[in-house]
Each structure stands twice: as structure tokens, then as C-alpha cells.
Amino acid sequence: MSSSTDDRQVVITGAGAVSALGFGADVLWDAMKAGRVGIAPLVHPRAESLRVRVAAQVPAFDPSTLFDERTLPLLDRVSQFGLLAANEAMAQSGLHFDEASGTRAAVIVGTGVGGETTQDAASEKLYGENSQRLHPLTIVRIMANAVSSHICVRHGITGPSFAVSSACASANHAIAQAVLAIRSGLVDVAITGGTEACLSYGVFRAWEAMRVLSDDTCRPFCRQRHGLVLGEGAGMFVIESLAHARARGAKVLAHIAGVGMSADAGDIVAPSDAGAARAMRAALADARMDPADVDYINAHGTGTLANDVTETRAIHMALGSHAMHPAVSSTKSMHGHALGASGALELIAVMGALTEGVIPPTMNALEPDPACNLDIVFHAARQTPVRAALSNSFAFGGLNAVLALRA
Fold first, then answer.
1. From the candidates 173, 255, 300, 335, which is the catalytic residue?
2. How far apart, in whole angstroms, are the C-alpha atoms of residue 182 and residue 101?
3. How far is CA 56 from CA 30, 76, 90, 189, 333, in A?
4. Residue ranges of the chain with pLDDT lower than 70?
């Protein structure tokens, strides 16, 4: 029988990633440490008709070499990314499920949009070509829960499985739900994270209308910042109770010590410092951490005029007199804003910082913004011990999710 302390503690034992910086969690982390930027000129069949000029796109790959002929027709790009990341995380964890253990595992995946490339292609055929018929697998590709279902099929998981959708906080919300499911005793293990692949013509046009996209690159916390850069990808994790991990001799990569969630209940798009601060304080309280314990914050850091100053205020509100202690960076400056997958990609950065004592940098800045009065790590990684960290995700709709981690 495990102790109540071990049951409460949730640890990461596997990680996988697909991003604009390449394939693999280690590849992503090495690129972020090095300050490599995955933002590049937009590659899209209709790029010339768009005002969007840059994006953080996953490098070209041939899914037919990675998925069998029976499975591939079922998979939108968002599911391809999610499955690849989940398979990598499972391989690292060393877990295999049988009929009994599969019932004690969950799959909880965040996505802000779901099968958008399929949706876009279907709309083009239906409205642009006036076709009366769509592909018979259109629905199963589009549905937001597709990736969680495919992960269950691939790995023999028969416990709770569902999707979480809260825009840019989707991955962190999914991970938080998985943590709570393990703590409650509902399951012992979960595959969780986020995936997004929505760089379609329609989505680009919709984001253009919001006038929050940068036309060159993402410059979080920089005086000259002028918008976010859309990205895509997936980050997936195997998490389990510490008792379960110890019983099977698993290597612990990091501890998810606390989760915090809040709703602004205010403006549908304008961020709230009070709402973000509530989520950060909740994560600290859940982790039984003091503000002084936090050595690193992976900021939401979108590079928009409103977000970065608001998040700065929120960090000061949440950490008080200790707000200048933690190093802060935004890795969106390298892998772009992958929307529902962003928190998952950023968790890779937090895990690396905890394990190696390296703070990944905020890239592309020209001049620090005095209004963002934090210890921002600009231009190059910083070597420093990291005992504990926060990972912030704040979404349109005023939905906030923060993870607190320890080494």
C-alpha cells in the first residue's frame, strides 16, 4: 500500500514533442537552449493572398512513412502530431498496458481547434467547388477527441479518455485534469498534453481580422513587440503517481507539484492581471510553495502589446516582493504560439530548466520594455540552479491554467 504522500505526488516519466524546431522532446529542448528560432516565412499554397508573412510550422514530413495504411486515412494533421508525441512519451516511460492496467490509465488531451485542416478542406469542397459529397471519414478526422481516442487504441488504454478545449490554455488544463484524476485515485497513469495543427487559410484570415499577428517575428517583453506568431505542434507526457512510478522503478523526469486554474469573468479577449494572478497563487498553494521558492517562470509571453504588460503585473501581484527573484522567459519567441499545444511545448522547457539548471532565452528582442519589469532572460540561455518553476497559460475567454513543478 502506497503512502498518502506518494499518492498525492504526481511525476512525469515520459515526454514527446513535435514542433517547428523538429521532432522529439530532446530536439525541442536542445533548440530552445541554443536560442534557435523556428519562425520562418509562411509556407502555404495561398500565402501570396495572405497578409500573414511568418509562422512557426512543423518541418515537412511524410506521414505515410509513420502510420500504416489503415490508420492514416483516419488522421487529421492534429492527430498525427499528437500520436507521434504520445508514442515518444510512452517509449521513454517504458510503460506497456495489458487488459487490467489499461483500465487504470487515462488519456486527456488539450486542443484549441481540433481537426482544422480537414474542416478547411471540407469547406472548400462543399462551398468552393459546390460538391454534394464529402469524404466519409470527415467527422472522425475533425472531432476534437480524435487524438485521445487514437492514443487509447494505439496503447490499449481503456480508462477515462477525453479532450479539453480552452483555447491557448488547453494543454495546461488537460494536464491539470490528468493530475487531479491521478490524485483522486481514479487512475494510476495518464497520457496528457496538447496538440494543434490549425494553420489553414480560414484560420489565418480569422487571425488577420483580430490584428494581433506580427509581420516579422515574435518579440515577447520587447519595447518594439507588435504581435504573436502562430505555430503548431504537440507535446505529450506520461504522468503517474509517485507510488506507481517507484513500484515499477521508473525514472522521474520532474514533479508536477501543483495546478492552478481561474476564469477572468471579464472581457472575452482582453487579459486580466487579477485572473492570471489568481491562477498562479492557486498553483503555488496547491504545490505548498512560497513565492520565494520559484526560480523560473515560463511566461505565456505572446508578444502582443496587451499580454506582456498584463502578465508582468500578474506576476508582481502573485509573487509580491519576490517578483524580481525568478528568471522569466517566453519560449514562444522560438516555437511560436501553438495555441492549444503551447503549454505542452513550454512544459518541455520547464523540465529542461529543472533538470539541467538552464533557463531558455527569450529571443528576437531589440530593446527591453521598461513596463515589463521582471528578470527577463534575453538573447541567450542562463545557467542557474532551478528548484521550482511555474508554467503560465492564459487564454482568450479569460481562462487561465498554471502548472507548478519541482525537480
1. 300
2. 14
3. 17, 19, 26, 32, 10
4. 1-7
Domains of the chain: 4-247 (3.40.47.10), 257-406 (3.40.47.10)
- Return the C-alpha cell found at 280: 498562479
- In this predicted structure, what is the pLDDT of residue 398? 98
Which alpha helices (H) appear in 185-304, and where do they start and end?
A: 201-210, 242-247, 273-287
Question: Cell match 454534394: residue?
Answer: 132
- Is 300 labeled as catalytic in the residue annotation? yes
| 283-298 burial code (b ≥16 CB/10 A, e <16) | bbebbebebebbbbbb
Could you report the per-residue pLDDT of 187-241, keeping only the tens digit for each? 999 999 999 999 999 999 999 999 999 999 999 999 999 999 999 999 999 999 9
Find where cell 495489458 sits: 98
Which one from 168, 198, 218, 222 is the annotated catalytic residue? 168
pTM over 0.90: yes
Q: Which helix (H) or strand (E) holds 328?
A: strand 327-329
Rounded CA separation 195/186 (Å): 24
3-state secondary structure of 399: strand
C-alpha cell at 405: 513543478
Sign of the alpha-carbon torsion through 315, 319, 323, 325: negative
At residue 121's C-alpha, the angle toward residues 235 and 52, to 5°, is 65
List the catalytic residue out of 155, 173, 335, 337.
Answer: 337
Entry field: residues in the chain: 407
DSSP letter, residue 33: H
Instruction: Determine whether 337 is an active site residue.
Output: yes
Query: Which one, of 397, 360, 39, 399, lies nearest residue 218 by Cα?
Result: 39
Q: What are phi and psi of 221, to 5 degrees?
A: 65, 15
Q: CA dist 124 to 52, 77, 138, 374, Å?
A: 20, 17, 13, 46
